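During the reporting period the student researcher (J.K.) took over the structure-prediction task from the postdoctoral fellow and processed the backlog of single-chain submissions. One of the processed entries is reproduced below for the supervisory committee.
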Amino acid sequence: MNIAIIPAAGLGTRMGGATPKQFLMLEGVSILIHTLRKFAAAEGIDEVYVALRAGDIDRVRLDIERERFMRPLRLVTGGESRQETVMRALEAAPPKTELVVVHDAVRPFVTAEMIGQVIAQARKDGAAILGIPSVDTVKQVERQVVLGTIPRERIVLAQTPQAFRYSVLREALARAAADGFSGTDESSLVERLGHRVTVLMGSDRNIKITKPSDLPLARLYLAEERERNTAKVQG
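J.K. obtained the following structure tokens:
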């Protein structure tokens, strides 16, 4: 069994305002639901686990009921951090789970192809992520002083989905908890085990909506996505 975990327990403080970013609306539908639509329709995903703050579970349950997804979506209570949130979702998954795909709740433009690619690679290597090359020069700094320039050919900007064998991610989360280590993504936890993580090419369109200036671009991408889907149906 392959499962997807969508951590959606964050407050989204960078966006500003009282509404967490995953619940902001795009064309009348929350960003979270746009994201869940992609995973509910993706081949290779058997169940989707959405990890939320306790106070958000009822509202998301109603949204999911209105959507009438064909694939099972399980709601679980998340933790104080992303790592704890993912661990709680992992603990709720059935023991027969083979692969786990973790995806940011606010990346609604992920494609079925991206999901399929990381699943296939993780089945082979045990861990796979998406990443895009940096087009900017990257500086290493300390206290506003440049220490050096990092060659761009050695830099990728990590994206989700990230896919792992269940046993690998479970061990990585447990080790991080025992060591008091906090990573910025699941891959960073797996890397600490010395486990190989394969990077596949992501997409500039697979944006993470985190600040107000991201919303106009998201609306544009959504309109283009709907135009393509309409053209497919009519064609």
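The committee noted the following: The chain has one domain: 2-128+160-234.
J.K. will present the remaining backlog at the next meeting.
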